[in-house]
Amino acid sequence: MASLGCLVFLGALYAAQKPWREYPGLEYSNYPIPPDFREQTEWAFARLMYPPVSAWRGGFNFEGDWREGGTNWTMDYPRSDRHLSAALRRLTRIHVRSVEQPLNLDDGDVYDWPWLYGVEVGHWNLTDDQARTMREYLLRGGFFMCDDFHGTDEWEVFVASMEKIFPDRPIVEIPNGDAIFHTVYDLDDRYQVPGAQYMDTGKTFEKDGRVPHWRAIYDDYGRIMVAMCFNMDLGDSWEHADNPQYPQRFSALGIRIGVDYLVYAFTH
Q1: Other CB atoms closer than 10 Å to residue 99's CB: what's the count?
Q2: Cβ atoms of 234 and 228 closer than 8 Å
Q3: Rounded distance, CA 125 to CA 157, Å?
Q4: Alpha-carbon distance 84 to 75, whole Å?
Q5: How does DSSP classify residue 126?
Q6: CA-CA distance, 179 to 190, in Å (whole number)?
Q7: Model confidence over 126-168: pLDDT tens digits?
Q8: What are phi and psi of 227, to 5 degrees?
Q9: CB neighbours of 100 closer than 8 A, spacing ≥ 6?
Q10: Is there a smaller number of Cβ atoms within 10 Å at the N or the C end of the chain?
Q11: How far, in Å, CA of 186 to CA of 179, rounded?
Q12: Taking a C-beta distance cutoff of 8 angstroms, is the pair 44, 101 a contact?
């Protein structure tokens, strides 16, 4: 019965994929588009679009319309998304689309996408309506993975929006024995996955985020709905997987975590 449900779900997802478009990113413009980007598939990398908490960060002017890109949600985009998608094509039997799908919670179609990724959520600022939509999405069976936020200040910003989504559910550390670390790869021995700054500084941490945390919010049945990679930058590990200056061991773990989280989302 579970297998039949999975097949029905994947068939619905195949039919639901909407036309693709690319947005201006913080780091990339005119990134090469794969020739098969229009292919209808079982799964596509869904990236959360969100309003930032501040109009300024790190010298970038974010006073424009966040819905048109060029803000925090586009960090590492689209290179990171496409590298993980390519890895999933090689490492799993999931029929994966070669390009990502940015999703705005205000558009109402997030329910068509079972796995959602948010980057730099230490800078997000969800509206009340967006938080309600995210809550409903997660309680209906959606899965949200968030990443690339570091230190005390960014954690507080993250929690401010997360408490709008789930004011009644605790954030906890994921135990090593949880199925999310054992769906495809056994990942008991994990370590901090750094961002691109490691290539210049040799530091695996940013700000005061010296200790990596794999945290989660569970539903009433023990399923992880929100998986948080805190004090880490898996997005950079995917983005720089083809960069010889970025250590292979970090990309190897980052990709394995991504694979495990996706397969978990499909099976739980």
Answers
A1: 21
A2: no
A3: 8
A4: 15
A5: -
A6: 15
A7: 999 999 999 999 999 999 999 999 999 999 999 999 999 999 9
A8: -115, 120
A9: 44, 45, 46, 47, 77, 78, 81, 82, 85
A10: N
A11: 9
A12: yes
Q: How far apart are CA 265 and CA 268, in angstroms?
A: 6
A 10 A CB-CB count for 1 gives: 5
Euclidean distance between the first and the last CA atom of the chain, given in angstroms as a whole number: 14
The one-letter code for the residue type at 238 is W
The pLDDT, as a whole number, for residue 56 is 46
212: exposed, middle or buried (Cβ count in 10 Å: 0-12, 13-18, 19+): middle
Helix ranges restricted to H, the chain = 2-16, 79-91, 128-139, 151-165, 198-201, 234-239, 248-267
Tell me, letter by letter, the H, E, C secondary structure of 162-215.
HHHHCCCCCCEECCCCCHHHCCCCCCCCCCCCCCCCHHHHCCCCCCCCCCCEEE
Q: Determine the Cα–Cα distance for residues 13 and 201; give it in Å rounded to an integer.
A: 43
**What DSSP designation does 38 have?**
T
Q: Which of 112, 127, 154, 121 is nearest to 48 (CA)?
A: 121
Give pLDDT < 70 ranges for the chain: 1-18, 55-63
Angstrom distance (rounded) from CA 54 to CA 70: 13
Domain ranges of the chain: 2-267
Look at residues 99, 82, 78 and name the one whose alpha carbon lies nearest to residue 28: 78
DSSP state of 130: H
Whether residue 65 contacts residue 24, with contact meaning beta carbons closer than 8 Å, is answered with: no
Centre a 10 Å sphere on the Cβ of residue 135 and count the other Cβ atoms it contains.
Answer: 17
Q: Which CATH number is correct for 2-267, 3.30.1060.10, 3.30.450.40, 3.30.230.10, 3.40.50.12140?
A: 3.40.50.12140
